[in-house]
Amino acid sequence: MKEWVWYETGSNRDRYLLNPSANSEEHLSLFKFLGILFGVDFLNVQNLRSISDIDKSGVNEDTFHEVIPLESFEGQSADGRFVPIVPGGWSIPLTFSNRKEYVERALAYRLHEFDRQVAAVREGMSWIIAIPLLSLLTYRQLEQMVCGMPDISVDILKRVVRYREIDEHHMLVQWLWQTLEQFTNEDRVLFMRFVSGRSRLPANIADISQRFQIMKVDRAIDGLPTAQTCFFQLRIPPYSCQAVMAERLRYAIHNCRSIDMDNYMLSRNTDAANLSDGEM
What we know:
280 residues
């Protein structure tokens, strides 16, 4: 049984989801490890920093243990266990004078306590990708190869667009491109979710399996735009000016959250004011 599911519905259709049927002890232990591996223990770092800088709060050697309950070089593992952070750590007293060494050791422990698990993940990756090739990439480049580009490129959308009931020279089309270029990247991400159900474009344009469709629809002037996520399609009514189009589009992408209503809303032929993230 797979630990992951990947459905073409829901707001996470561009991500893997946990499989609720994977509930054996083995699966649960794998999920627990995943949480440990992916976790970022910001609170732990804050606590260690407060120990290191505790003198700035007026704490001295005499009052140190009134504030810090730890007695030795022990720390909390990511799975909640209290463990020695160095060999023999239980027998090394933690004091005001050696607190900075304690912090260094605790950070080193936390950074390396996953080494065996990370090595196993690395080995698994090596079955698919030659590990030496990974050294040619930064972590951001690897993320983009796997997850897509975090920045939505209007130029790429223009390269994969297909027009229906309208052509590229139409004023509505020119206004749309102007609007998208004026949007922040955060707004363009919301636009992508609105028209496709996904928040990123593939890093390689050749991996875009569907053309982006822009379709003119015969509806009341200055109405709200609609979209069909399953077809990567934006349907735009006539607008009196580019500013109104931008305002209506921005309203739609910020207020449409359910992306699985396409067929339902199409069958009802609702007015554009009734919003969903797939169809309004």
